[in-house]
Amino acid sequence: RDTAIHFQYNQFAELEEIFKIHGSELAAIVMEPTRSTDPDPGFLEGIRELCNRNNTKLIFDEISIGWRLCLGGAHLLYGVNPDIAVFAKTISNGFPMGAVIGNELTMEAAQKSFISSAYWSEGVGPAASVACIEKMKTHDIPTHINKIGKYFQLKWKDIGKRYDLPVFSKGRPELVQIGFNHPEANSLMTLFTTRMLDEGFLATSGFNPTWAHQTRHVDDYFNKAESVFGELLESLRKKDINQRINNSPKHTGFSRLVD
Description:
It contains nine helices and seven strands; from the N terminus they run H-E-H-E-H-E-E-H-H-H-E-E-H-E-H-H. By secondary structure, the protein is of the alpha/beta class.
């Protein structure tokens, strides 16, 4: 508690001010190099320079964006090397696995610490990671998931327009976020998820395309969504949407945990 100072992504001046006030106290900058938007020109480079001048470590959290944009991690795409980068999820295709990489000087600190684990000999995660990375070396995963994600976003906006429902789609095609711009947004998404489950689709407020996804899968999804959107519209017109979900709308994610 009270050991972290927050700054907004792409607000370099804000971070500069933090360094002016707390520069000597800052052990590290921990951030995602990107998530839903690209860094402004010079943003990541400026942070790297600030860290260099103040002897502050730069740590990139690539657990979510990981290898979705570039083989080896997003920091390679932007040409900015952190002192430490952390990966998971995409490196092992869903199997439990994490990896921490870094420059020699920074990683040497691990020699002065002790880490114990009951899972030292677990081999499924590492094996899955090796197999996944080998496939990513020979298949253009980033281009494919970008294509599928854009197709999904297009279909989502189209179905919303046709049923006159205020939908939105934001984020990268590789990590699509969807929802409704409506006072009953959480209830709408809850009913959508419930009815899509009945149709055999796990449909939530996010869609993370994979190599396995093809446009035909997206088409099947939205073919099933037709009748569901019809019910969403009806529930708003009859003002009985919460009765249809037993008055139990979904939570608001991490936002429920902060002021």
